[in-house]
Amino acid sequence: MAVTANGRRTGSTRARKRYFLNMAELSDEDISFINAHGVPLSRVFDAESLPTKFWKSLMSERRLWLAYGVTPCEAAGHQLRTRKGHCVRCNPAALAFLKRHDLEGEVYIAYSKKLRLVKVGSTEFYLDREASLNADGYAGAADWEIRHWARSNRAGRTEYLVQAELRQHHIPTQYFRESTGSFVWANEVFRCSLELAKATLEKISRCK
Ligand SMILES: [Zn+2]
């Protein structure tokens, strides 16, 4: 299937950004929670419109931590769950377990010339990831190239620290994800120069 994705660069104007942020599944409270707990964005999965069984198995296969766009919890209507299906806002200890199992891997900086956006993520093997980003039409592009990467013994934490430094450039973008056939948010994208992203990853890798 061709990548149709709404290749629209959401957020290219202030008005559009506001409009899309209103549609976001991640509430401001969820975003604060994610930031406060040091959750790397590549471990947060947009499960909107997917059957529960499907997202649970896909998330454990891809070692993802949190899902949103899911059935709200009964206690308080939260919409952020672990891959086991527990409400993480009611039960933050579930997240501590996932963080303890943060593994060695590669933190990478990918760049799309078409979108002129940077993606910061982490994975076991970055070479496989470049192919899957393009197969998915990530953020509405199929020209992602991994331009820089660094090995880390706690890849999730390193990714989080890089994303936290780049936060002012963060620009979530909606697209059609080919692998699940659903419209979702690309949360790991930043409108900043490749040089800045590379320098940030290098700086954080050195601080270890
Ligand atoms: Zn809850």
Describe this structure in words.
This protein is an alpha+beta fold and 208 residues long. The chain has a four-stranded antiparallel sheet, with helices on both faces. The longest helix has 14 residues, at 194-207. It has two domains: 14-100, no CATH class; 105-207, no CATH class. The radius of gyration is 16 Å and the shape is globular. The protein is 35% helix and 22% strand. The structure holds zinc ion. Residues 73, 75-76, 78, 87, 89-90 line the site of zinc ion.
Heterogens: zinc ion
Largest sheet: 4 strands, antiparallel
Distance between the termini: 43 Å
The assembly state of the depicted protein chains is: single chain
In the sheet with the most strands, the strands line up as 6-4-5-9
Which tags fit this structure?
7 helices, three-stranded mixed beta sheet, 2 domains, single chain, alpha+beta, disordered N terminus, 208 residues, four-stranded antiparallel beta sheet, binds zinc ion
Which secondary structure elements does this structure contain, and how are they paired or packed?
Layout lengths: L13 H10 L4 H9 L7 E3 L5 H10 L4 E3 L11 E3 L10 H8 L4 E8 L4 E7 L2 H11 L7 E9 L2 H11 L7 E5 L4 E5 L2 E2 L3 H14 L1
The chain binds zinc ion.
Task: Write a brief caption for the model.
This protein is α+β, with helices and mostly antiparallel strands and 208 residues long.
